[in-house]
Amino acid sequence: MPYVTTDDGVRLHYLEHGDPMGDVVVLVAGFTSPATSWSAQQATLAEAGYRVLSLDRRGHGGSDEPPGGGDSMKRHGDDLAAFLIELAIPDTVLIGASMGGDAIWAYLDAHDEDNIRGVVIVDQTPRMLNDDDWPYGFYGYDESNRDTYFADSFPDPGRVSLLSKGPVRIARLVKAFGRGDTKRLSDTEKALLNDYAKSDWRAVIGRSRMPVLFVAGRESEYWPSEHAAAAAALAKKGRSVVIDKAGHAANIEQPALFDEQLLQFLGELRD
Predict the structure, then answer these.
(1) Radius of gyration, CA atoms only, the chain
(2) CA–CA distance, 119 with 117 (Å, rounded to integer)
(3) Are 73 and 196 in contact (CB under 8 A)?
(4) pLDDT tens, residue by residue, 138-159
(5) Fold type of domain 3-270
(6) Rounded Cα distance, 160 and 41, in Å
(7) How confident is the model over 24-70, as pLDDT tens digits?
(8) How many other CB atoms sit within 10 Å of the CB of residue 127?
(9) CA distances from residue 135 to 28, 49, 109, 223, 239 in whole angstroms, order as listed
(10) Which of 6, 114, 168, 246 would give a disulfide with 250, using CB separation of 3.0 to 4.6 Å?
(11) Is 0.85 topped by the overall pTM?
């Protein structure tokens, strides 16, 4: 199994698909999600001639748990930098789903973006906390429960039931994630979750120079789909798209529609 080792000794596992000489895309999955959750995109991008690298972030998939019991989005951004350096990637498109998208912003907040041709963010609002200036955060999360809402688990706002997705979408989610893991979060996972919830990446988006595509699921379980257009308006070269009949895992629930938008964006970067 291929690994990259970070400066604190954590081995980061990754998967590789497609043409070794093709343009590189890096896929970064969300909280507790493995690199294999990108299976539909791995096949589509490989068929289109790309070199597809799918990273398991520390504590995810086949990667090592972080040492010392602590974790942060900054560390995940630094890990992404180490990954790109170790594999000597000259330029790439970064594609992140959910928390994986925020790992990309953490990378861009601390590292040079000259080797990044573009970014795709899949159903991740740049700020989870709601206030008068940003009403596109996580449902029910505001200053009154800032320190408690994500303290012990990833909350369920109760907006969209699993059964409402129908058998096809449910089957796709089960295939990608299994039947679900009900284990309690570790202290390390809680630390990461709380840091994630309290982060605000809007300024990083505003400084970014490369094209960014923000994708939202029309039926996202966690925030209004308008977050994508609002985030795109912050970027110098941002645009957004909303995938119908898709929830938070838009790339899994509607892979054909998502892949169509993804390939179009990647094609534009080649032109």
Answers:
(1) 17
(2) 7
(3) yes
(4) 999 999 999 999 999 999 998 8
(5) Rossmann fold (3.40.50)
(6) 25
(7) 999 999 999 999 999 999 999 999 999 999 999 999 999 999 887 66
(8) 22
(9) 26, 40, 23, 9, 19
(10) 246
(11) yes
